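Deviations from the work plan: none for this task. Representative record:
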Amino acid sequence: MITATDLCLALDGRAVLDHVSFTVAAGESVALVGPNGSGKTSILRCLLGLVPFDGRVTIDGHDVMREPIAARSLLSYVPQKAAFGDAAAHEVLAFVAKLRRLNRSRIPLTLREVGLEGHAEQRVRTFSGGMQQRLSLAVALLADTPVLLLDEPSASLDREGQGHFFEIVARLRKRGHTLLLASHRPEEVESLCDRVLHIDRGRIAAPATPIVRHARVIALGARGERR
Amino acid sequence: MRIRETTLVAARELHDAMRSRWFIVAAGCFLALSLGLAMLGLAGAQRSGLAGFDRTTASLLNLALVFVPLVTLSLGGLGIAGELEDGSLALLLAQPITRGEAYAGKYLGLLAAVTASICIGFGATGIIVGVAAGSGNARGFLALVALTLLLGAATLSIGTVLSVALRARARVIGAAFAVWLLLVYVSDLGTIGLTLARNLAPGQVFTLALLNPVQQARVLGTLALTDRLDVLGTVGAFGLDHFGTVGLPVLLAGVLLAATALPFVVGYVLFRRTAIT
């Protein structure tokens, strides 16, 4: 479903990604893990065509640079920090629904699914970080695309919000959506992903590993950092 | 470029601009100043017996030449840089639209907001002056409205380039203010200085004026009011002499359109390559 070949990215003269290649099969759930600044978010931005990179990315065979509309029609993105300008929550979803030619009658249901049903008319600027994050998940749920890119999506959620978020993403996974998740949190990776790609200094640091083995590596890394 | 998607982005931009406090303050100031100038013009007209629209148009021309670039340069400047900074541009471009659609939609939405603000300000003034002093030279007044919209489109376009090139709100606002000073005040002084220092011929002064959209608008606006050579000054007199009463307005309007199109295209070329981080 996702094929990244030889991705190289330089931002402000600094090499950020160095010949990164990987594939994610349809229905697979893969985690990108690595320290801060390792290039996880940059990989997601390449997949969305947000940054000018060398190499090639295809989503279900569509090149993200040459066929951006076809490729992004298959993608939804939940960023680390969501921002939606000055609109109300239901206006954000209505805009996305119009752009993607979706049925707008699903908006109330989608807001309920992420726990924002009482905030439809509220300006998003007045939302807390966690509420904005839930709204960006609502945007992804409304679009209901086969591929979901998640960039540390639960970073600004409280414990209850994280639990709710895990449930929703786990449901999407069961329904056969392809997930690529950048994360620092071992419990998130463990509960949501089948496979891990370890990124370090812009490179794939180790071959893709099954989740159980890698979760232990992350835990050890975290203990090491505390020392 | 798809029309539907571009229009959707433009409608969202217009909606957001109309809601922003900054825009409401700017539009309110424009309306208040227009009405204030109209009232002063009317008071003078009662004493001197001049037609209401002529005097009002002359006052509003000067207001438009100073105020419209200030508003549009900063509005255009904040358009893309603001969304780059807060991350909302990444979410927009993660949707199935092209960069061209997003860029054009944002520009058109802001232009629609500026147009609405100018039409409300001048419209209210036009109605008051029309009722109080009769229609007079209403054509000159309407020409001023059209000219202001053209000037607004050109300076909004320059603001948009600044926004894409500088990427950060603080930098863009600083640069927008510097460009405003340059277009409205410094270029006049520069032209005068160069003319004195280098003994520039009228044709050279005219060419220099063609580089500045505010100067183009100034001559166009003055032409809409009068073709008296002493009022038009060196640039207008030279233009009128070489291009005639029809050719000069057409030339100046064409150059203003080019001053809109060129920065718009430059901004798009930059935006296509911009890393959305």
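Chain B has one domain: 3-273.
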